[in-house]
Write a structure and sequence with these properties.
This protein is an alpha+beta fold and 128 residues long. The protein is built from 6 helices and 3 strands; from the N terminus they run αααβααβαβ. The protein has 2 domains: 2-55, no CATH class; 58-127, Ribosomal protein L7/L12, C-terminal domain/Adaptor protein ClpS (Ribosomal Protein L30, Chain: A, 2-Layer Sandwich), CATH 3.30.1390.10.
Length: 128
């Protein structure tokens, strides 16, 4: 009978996401007044950032810089991406680093990065 209970608990815990397992570990440590060994926690903790990376579907695209000799090309691309007027786009490029797009799907973010790089600027995309 005890083996069946243990098997059920193992099966239930196997289905939990890593974040919930970490919360469970903390709750048990507090309830029992003990500390889990580092080796037992290292594997779930190491996989948590990888899951977070895979889940990013929206990206914040930032213009990092534009070289002086390529500024006009970058301004044209910024106008195309943002829909800003000439003066606003020029101010944005000269004030880099500036956000070009607050939230863009991965495909759109990649396209923006390619356009900016092709024009001679540097841009980055950060997952939200």
């Amino acid at each position: 009978m005890a083996t069946e209970n243990i098997d059920q608990i193992v099966e239930t815990l196997s289905k939990l996401p890593v974040i919930e397992l970490a919360k469970l570990k903390t709750a048990l440590e507090e309830k029992w007044g003990v500390k889990a060994q580092a080796a037992a926690v290292a594997a779930p903790a190491a996989s948590a950032p990888a899951e977070a990376k895979e889940e990013a579907t929206e990206f914040k695209v930032t213009l990092e810089e534009a070289s002086a000799d390529k500024k006009i090309s970058v301004i044209k691309v910024v106008r195309e991406i943002t829909g800003l007027g000439l003066k606003e786009a020029k101010d944005l490029v000269e004030g880099a680093p500036k956000v070009l797009k607050e939230s863009a799907p991965k495909a759109e973010a990649d396209e923006i990065l390619k356009k900016v790089q092709a024009a001679g600027g540097k841009a980055s995309a950060k997952g939200l």
